[in-house]
Amino acid sequence: MKNMKRNVQQGFTLIELMIVIAIVAILVALAVPAYQDYTTRAKFAECIGAAAPVKLSVAEYRQTMSAWPSSAQAGVNSETTGNCAAMTYASGAITVTSATDSGVKAVLTPTAQSSGSVTWACTNGGTAAKAKFLPSTCRTGGST
User: Could you give the residue ranges of the DSSP H alpha helices within the chain?
Assistant: First the structure.
């Protein structure tokens, strides 16, 4: 009985390590493009946020004057931020354009309510292929 040895496995075999490496490689191949889309979407969200003061100005002007303001009255600033290439205004609608390589655009369109308030709808202002870079409210034409 003393001569019987137990075979105890010590560590992983080469094939087990190769399988784990293959699984990790597949997961990384799927995660990297998704993360890149996420970062582009997050950068464009800065542009939507930069439009907030203009949205407020347009809504206030509409409530007090019962008309849509001109570009100068709306307070549209030609200055851009690091992630926003342009912000334009025409007839109440604000168009924001991303400065990233994606060239994403969104159009924020106001609607005057009978109560005097203004609601905003966000829609894709660029190509359908770039819609994945928009915030979720802009992909479905939701309100902001």
Answer: 14-50, 52-65, 71-74, 136-139
